[in-house]
Amino acid sequence: RQAALFGLAWLAAELARGLVFTGFPWVASGYAQVDGPLAAFPLEGAAQAMDGAGAIVNATSAGLSGSAALDLPLEAAPATAIVMDMVYKPLRTELLARAQAAKLSTIDGLAMLIGQAAPAFDAFYGAPPPKDVDVRTLALAALGEAPARKRERI
After folding, report:
1. What pTM, to 2 d.p., does this model score?
2. Handedness of CA 61, 129, 10, 15 (dihedral sign)
């Protein structure tokens, strides 16, 4: 009975989320269908999208080992924008290199991968990951990359 109530509550929450963020429950699959701060733009409109952007995120496979990188007009981004590329192999993608050259703050794909790993570890083992393990350094070694600098532990 509790499982059924939980399922119904989850469904109601998802429908409410769809209505609040999209205006239509059947379009609850994403926020990109509406005009606003979370809107999606075609690549032809990327310069317009960069105007006033706080974050620029590549959540595609573009730039993954062997594939072409996104050619985004980073010069149109404000100096305060943060560029994140969710690709983690190679760790330093062409997009991130261009962003760094433009003096924009960057976040590599390993941050996302590690960020997902912490709650997954907790869910799988029933306890948070050990705080004394520097997961980034271990992941960099596994990827054959040298750690660029000391990072916070998760």
Report:
1. 0.66
2. negative
Tokens of 130: 């050990």
Contact of 63 with 75, CB cutoff 8 Å: no
d(Cα 99, Cα 74) in Å, to the nearest integer?
7
For residue 100 the two structure tokens come to 């760094």
Is the CB of residue 129 less than 8 Å from the CB of residue 117?
yes
8 A C-beta contact, residue 65 and residue 89:
yes
The pLDDT of residue 40:
63
- How far apart, in whole angstroms, are the C-alpha atoms of residue 96 and residue 115? 19
31-76 per-position pLDDT tens digit: 445 555 556 667 788 888 888 888 888 888 888 887 888 888 999 9
Residue 127 CA to residue 120 CA, distance in Å, equals: 10
